[in-house]
Amino acid sequence: MKQMSDNKPVFIQIKEWIEQHILRGEWSKGHQLPSVRELSAEFGVNPNTIARTYERLTMEQTIHSVRGVGYFVSDQAKELIETRRREEFRKETIPQFIADMNLLGIELEEFIKHYNETEKQ
Amino acid sequence: MKQMSDNKPVFIQIKEWIEQHILRGEWSKGHQLPSVRELSAEFGVNPNTIARTYERLTMEQTIHSVRGVGYFVSDQAKELIETRRREEFRKETIPQFIADMNLLGIELEEFIKHYNETEKQ
Amino acid sequence: MKQMSDNKPVFIQIKEWIEQHILRGEWSKGHQLPSVRELSAEFGVNPNTIARTYERLTMEQTIHSVRGVGYFVSDQAKELIETRRREEFRKETIPQFIADMNLLGIELEEFIKHYNETEKQ
Amino acid sequence: MKQMSDNKPVFIQIKEWIEQHILRGEWSKGHQLPSVRELSAEFGVNPNTIARTYERLTMEQTIHSVRGVGYFVSDQAKELIETRRREEFRKETIPQFIADMNLLGIELEEFIKHYNETEKQ
DNA sequence: GTGGTCTAGACCACA
DNA sequence: GTGGTCTAGACCACT
Question: Which residues does chain D have with pLDDT short of 70?
């Protein structure tokens, strides 16, 4: 059974887990997603929770359902996710991150060191 | 009346607003904070909400109360906040930030450019 | 409906009532606590009061919440409570108790007599 | 300026400070207490707070006022305080203390050791 | 005036 | 159903 972190709602965590697969190219367009039952078993959550995740992803046009068959990754899925996330990252995450660095006195050098160490792995 | 963003709970936003004042040195140790009623008027929220904020800050030993008198910034307040936040930033924020950069294909150069532009301001 | 003494705030009394259950081993790690509404009915207090109790126990890492599910006893709960209480007892309660004995002229023998009588019960 | 601990209301702390003097025999019956102004200066509190302390002690017949002269320790003061405190100590403090010892697994031997060490000082 | 506790009731997010 | 946040208003203890 997959492990989940705390804090975030479960259905958001599963949504992000799915988006990771798409972003990394592991699930490309047309790929069939695991069934609701399958995924609910894997995460140990109520099927309703998975249904809710799929519903949300459908609303965002990341996936689409084919009645009686299952859910599939949409054609534009990867681009949509990337665009949305990049924009948010540049407009909100980066400025906030830099503001925090300044406030806490974290130097750019320290960040670059962290970055390079992560890259090597 | 002070403006607040959405997303986060109000009492957390006010907590962070207070911590900013302390981190920036505007409210140093021994400084008396605005009274519960005063601050509730300033933010346009219920006094209970401010009381909750102060209660939490008290439990974190950032401030302390004197009954019938008011709330005061604790001696170790700034150090406590900085220590807590730096630890969280290094252990959680930075790794997550770098993971997102990689996932979204944001280059280190772009980040450094953002950083330098922010610095100049 | 459970009975409570006066003097102490209600939410503290309920907090201690919960800690007793944990200390006595009746509620071990992973045990699900009564829901906020359930306990508020049992003690005849407002749900907010129970929520406050649970919130404080959460901040002390004695319990933790799972949204939409409930509150659970944390793994380290018993040890945490015991450590905190023992420390307080040794550093504050015992010295104060002995000071009072001396001040009031209560002899050690009398205390030991009380102690042994209690033990037999 | 005298130091005060936290937690307890100031006027209670001052009340207990006065009672200590009487219990220890330092202020025997007929002894004139410090004036309100004097004591308020010594403790660094508002004169109202001292007035309230004296008022309470007067109500409990521990002291009495002579108009235009000051406050004096009553004849039965020491006995009154001792009786009240001893009763409370035997009926409430000791049983609670022993219950806590059992709950926290503090042995009688440890208590006696604490007791003897305090005695030597 | 200050903080501390509590009730009553609302609305939201989550499973 | 669960917890989480917030408002409105009350009463108390303390300075």
Answer: 1-7, 119-121
Of C residues 74-103, those with CB within 7 angstroms of nucleic strand E are: none
D12 against B43, higher pLDDT: B43
Q: What is the pLDDT of residue D63?
A: 92
pLDDT of residue C121: 58
Distance of C51 CA from E13 C1′ (whole Å) = 16
Q: Is residue A64 located within the same domain as residue A23?
A: yes
| pTM of structure | 0.81
**pLDDT tens per residue across span C55-104:** 999 999 999 999 889 999 999 999 999 999 999 999 989 999 999 999 88
Structure-token pair, residue B10: 């109000």
Q: Which residue is nearest to nucleotide E1 (CA to C1')?
A: B68
Both A34 and A72 in one domain: the answer is: yes
Query: How buried is B35 (Cβ within 10 angstroms: 0-12 exposed, 13-18 middle, 19+ buried)?
Result: middle
Q: Is D4 domain-assigned? A: no
Would you say residue D72 lies in a domain?
yes
Tokens found for residue C49? 């009061």
Q: D19 and D70: one domain?
A: yes
Rounded Cα–Cα distance for residues A104 and B31 (Å): 21
| Domain limits for position B33 | 10-76
Question: How far apart (Å, rounded) are the C-alpha atoms in residues B11 and B59?
Answer: 14
At residue A115, the pLDDT reads 95
Take residue D75 and report the two structure tokens written for it: 């004849």
Is residue A15 located within the same domain as residue A70?
yes
Task: For chains C and D, tell me whether 3 or more CB atom pairs sit within 8 A of each other.
Answer: yes
The gap between B63 CA and F7 C1' (Å) is 25
Residue C98 located in a structural domain: yes
Tens digits of residue pLDDT in A48-57: 888 888 988 9
A5 lies in a domain?
A: no
Specify the pLDDT at position A5.
62
Q: Determine the average pLDDT of the residues in A8-13.
A: 85
CATH number, domain with residue D22: 1.10.10.10
Beta-sheet strands, E only, within chain B: 63-66, 70-73
Residue A63: strand pairing partners = A73
Q: What is the overall mean pLDDT for chain A?
A: 87
Name the minimum distance, in Å, from the CA of B16 to any CA of chain A: 12
